[in-house]
Write a structure and sequence with these properties.
Radius of gyration: 20 Å
Number of strands: 6
Largest sheet: 6 strands, mixed
Number of helices: 3
Helix content: 25-40%
Strand content: over 45%
Distance between the termini: 72 Å
Low-confidence stretches: 15-24
Mean pLDDT: 85
Order of helices and strands: HHHEEEEEE
Oligomer: single chain
Length: 136
Amino acid sequence: MSIRITMLVALVVLVFATSTGAQQPATPTEPIAIAHMFLMAWGHERWDELKTVAGEQVTVRIGDKTYTLQPGSASEVKLVFPFSGLSTARVDGAVKGVAIQVLGVKVGDNEVRGTGTLTFQEKDGGFRVVGVSTGK
């Protein structure tokens, strides 16, 4: 009988430990996963989530104009869904960012769609998004 109680207690502890760990999303380490998380958090204005994958401020370049996105506060530049075609951008084999085939951004009433790039900075053994650019 005591073996059954011990097994039951162990099972309850295991289930509880597993369920509490699943509630907190881990920060991704792969460049594409970081880019996806950044774009989804920015687009849905989930600022706490954005802070986990972005630098203290993110420079957003749309053609020749520059805007600043500060995770944790609303910005005049917004991401427009959908985005698609994420691929790693490398220089001499080192990851420098992620290229985006279709990226939409909006400032006021003006919406721009085209190719884009997320620029990364390496920090604490991982990557943070520090720049967004689109050529149009």
